[in-house]
UniProtKB/TrEMBL annotation:
InterPro entries: PilO (IPR007445), Transl_elong_EF1B/ribsomal_bS6 (IPR014717). GO terms for biological process: type IV pilus assembly; type IV pilus-dependent motility. This is Type IV pilus assembly protein PilO. It comes from the Bacteria. Keywords: Membrane, Transmembrane, Transmembrane helix. The chain crosses the membrane at residues 16-37. PANTHER family: FIMBRIAL ASSEMBLY PROTEIN PILO-LIKE PROTEIN-RELATED (PTHR39555), TYPE IV PILUS INNER MEMBRANE COMPONENT PILO (PTHR39555:SF1). Gene3D superfamilies: 3.30.70.60. The keyword Membrane applies. It comes from Vibrio hangzhouensis.
Length: 200
């Protein structure tokens, strides 16, 4: 008897071989469907965890690279902290302004210069610092003025020369009239970071 001659509603009367074949096909189909339904979420989970593993490996490589650079970064931080502390120590405290002005004046006298003006300008606020302008006018020779500006740069407190102008006192004279806008700085109260000495 051929399968084409068999009716599904008469399956119970089919020959045993035909019944076994159909039962086997149905069982395999059910098994395949079950494996698909249970295996698909597991496959999706596997793909998800593989993706997560790749991301974690990438993050681990970044952390490992940062850890390798940590000693170098610590050294750079230490160097910056030392430089920062050195700069703080070079800024004058309020009580030192008079002596700083006297030192600027003394350097001029030591270099045979004659002052026509030397005084502080109005304090200016700049972010975490105050800028203290210093107006200086003097006369002297070119070489003496050069030595004076060099001496100012070597003072223990920071004094920057921002703008300078000079001209001959007269056409026949080698003496120059020298005008310079210098400045020093102070930290604002509460702006000195850790390691500072709290000057303001």
């Amino acid at each position: 008897m051929a399968f084409a001659d068999l009716e599904l509603d008469e399956m119970m009367s089919w020959p045993l071989g035909a019944q076994l074949i159909v039962a086997t096909v149905l069982m395999l189909g059910a098994l395949g469907a079950g494996l698909w339904l249970t295996g698909k979420p597991a496959w999706e989970d596997l793909q998800f965890y593989q993706q997560q593993e790749g991301q974690l490996k990438q993050e681990l490589r970044i952390v490992a690279k940062q850890a390798a650079l940590l000693p170098q970064m610590q050294q750079q931080y230490s160097d910056l902290s030392s430089h920062y502390q050195h700069l703080i120590e070079q800024l004058p405290a309020q009580k030192e302004l008079a002596s700083l002005l006297a030192a600027v004046n003394e350097q001029g006298l030591n270099n045979a210069l004659t002052f026509t003006r030397i005084d502080w300008g109005k304090k200016q606020s700049q972010q975490f610092l105050y800028r203290l302008p210093l107006d200086i006018e003097l006369t002297g020779s070119y070489n003496d003025i050069g030595r004076y500006t060099q001496a100012i740069a070597h003072l223990p407190r920071i004094v920057l020369i921002d703008n300078a102008e000079w001209q001959r006192v007269s056409q026949e004279s080698s003496i120059l009239h020298f005008r310079v806008m210098a400045s020093t700085f102070q930290f604002k109260p509460g702006e000195v970071k850790e390691g500072g000495d709290g000057k303001n």
